[in-house]
Specification:
246 residues, alpha/beta, seven-stranded parallel β-sheet, 9 helices, globular
């Protein structure tokens, strides 16, 4: 019997890009998926339709994780729809870039609200509502390690996620719940490519030993493994999935 068919995953920020690929990849493994979104209902429904058309099981759910009630709503709806939650994937995030001296309070607060506070609240909810033996997979970024100019505020929010990941892994160990984070490098999503010149894209590719950008499926396959039973001895780790750029 494929035990994955009984599992339920919440994927935040799953209407497009890496999040959409994560949701579809998990569904291929037989996991039932809650496709969370904040601003793109049509794209989220497209992801759900594709999963269900392939024989999977998914629902779309609007919830802003920058709002205090968002995490609780996610778990309430998931439990009502599927009866349980086994896997939380914290993919939702926002990024505003500028030199630290020019970063506005509003831009910084928006990143804090979603990247750090949102991840904190979903982890807190998962810590008491996830089934024993479950999985929490957070998203950081390889900019924590690259320390590039312009990324100070964003990298700070992701460094906070990494710290919470390592500590929560120790706190939930007695329940066999693993807590890890994936820290991608540049990935060729619509959001990442938007507004960048071909010359800039080529420069970014040139920073990587493989001479290319990551693909959403490169990241999704790692998350699929971390969500599986086979990953049970990996806990409290930050996996820098970037092809060796750092």
């Amino acid at each position: 019997m494929n035990t994955a068919q009984h599992k339920v995953a919440i994927v935040t920020g799953a209407s497009r890009g890496i999040g959409a690929e994560l949701a579809k990849n998990l569904a291929e493994a037989g996991i039932r998926v809650v496709v969370n979104y904040a601003h793109s209902p049509e794209k989220a429904e497209d992801v759900v339709r594709e999963i269900n058309a392939q024989g999977g099981s998914a629902i779309a759910l609007k919830a802003s994780l920058a709002e205090p009630a968002g995490a609780r709503v996610l778990f309430d709806v998931a439990e009502k729809a599927f009866g349980r939650v086994d896997i939380l994937i914290n993919n939702a995030g926002s990024m505003a870039l500028s030199p630290l001296a020019e970063m506005t309070d509003d831009a910084f607060e928006q990143m804090l609200a979603l990247n750090l506070s949102g991840s904190f609240r979903t982890m807190r909810e998962a810590a008491v509502r996830l089934n024993d033996g479950g999985r929490i997979i957070n998203f950081s970024s390889s900019v924590v390690g690259l320390y590039q100019p312009g990324y100070a505020a964003y990298a700070a929010t992701k460094a906070g996620v990494e710290a919470m990941t390592k500590i929560l892994a120790k706190e939930l160990g007695p329940r066999a719940i693993t807590v890890n984070a994936v820290a991608p490098g540049p990935v060729a999503t619509e959001l990442f490519l938007e507004g960048k010149s071909d010359a800039l894209i080529d420069k970014i590719k040139g920073m990587n030993p493989f001479g290319r950008l990551g693909e959403a499926n490169d990241i999704a396959r790692i998350v699929r493994f971390l969500a599986s039973e086979e990953s049970g001895w990996i806990n409290g780790q930050i996996i820098r999935a970037n092809g060796g750029v750092v």
